[in-house]
C-alpha cells in the first residue's frame, strides 16, 4: 500500500492521496475489525488521529474508518521524499471519550451503572462511574473514580485491569426497626475485557472486588460482575 501526500503533508492539510489501486478502510483500529469501505487510486483522505498503530481517516464520501499506521511510512511528499511522520502524527493523537451503560450483580443485588471516561493514551483511561444496586436487604448507591490500563489496546478483544476509589451509600431494608442509612468509603481492584463490535461501539465485561471501610472498623469485601456497552467518540 502506498500514499502520496498533498499540500504540505501533515504539517498543514493532514491529507494524503491514495497511490495504490485501492485502500481498504476498517471499522476500527485493528485487523480484527471488518473492512467496510474501499477507496480507489488518487482519492484524497483526511488524517484525523492515531491510536494503537492505526490512523483514523475520513473519505471524500463522508465515511470515517481506520488504516494501519505503517502504511503512512510509504508516503511521499511534494518533493518525492519520504516525510518524517512521527512529529506530524502527534498533532492529531488526541484522546477519546467513552460513555458506558452496564448491568450486573453486586452481592446478589441487581446493579445498573452509567460511566463516563476519557482515554489519555492507548493504554490509560480514567473513568467516573455511578451505580445503583437494589437487593432484598438494602438499596446501594456507589460513586467511584477508577483508572484502567489496557494491556493490548491494538487487539479487537482487549483485556484491562483497574484500580479505583469512591463512596457507597447504603439504605438498609427492615420490616420492624429501620436501621440508619450509612455512607462508607471504598477501594476496589478488578479487570475486564473490551470487544470491538463496530465503529465506536464496544461490548464491555468486567469484575470488581470492593473493600468497604465501615464505621465499625469491620471492613467488608463485596464482589460485582458487570456486562454492558460503551460508545466511543
TrEMBL record:
Residues forming the Outer membrane protein beta-barrel domain are 110-232
- Entry keyword Calcium: no
Q: Which UniProt keywords apply?
A: Signal
Give a Pfam family name: OMP_b-brl
Q: Which domain of life is it from?
A: Bacteria
Q: Does the keyword Signal apply?
A: yes
User: Do you know which InterPro entries this protein is assigned to?
Assistant: Beta-barrel_OMP (IPR027385), OMP/PagP_B-barrel (IPR011250), SH3-like_bac-type (IPR003646)
Gene3D superfamilies (UniProt xref): 2.40.160.20, SH3 Domains
Domain (SH3b) spans: 23-72
Put simply, this protein is called SH3b domain-containing protein
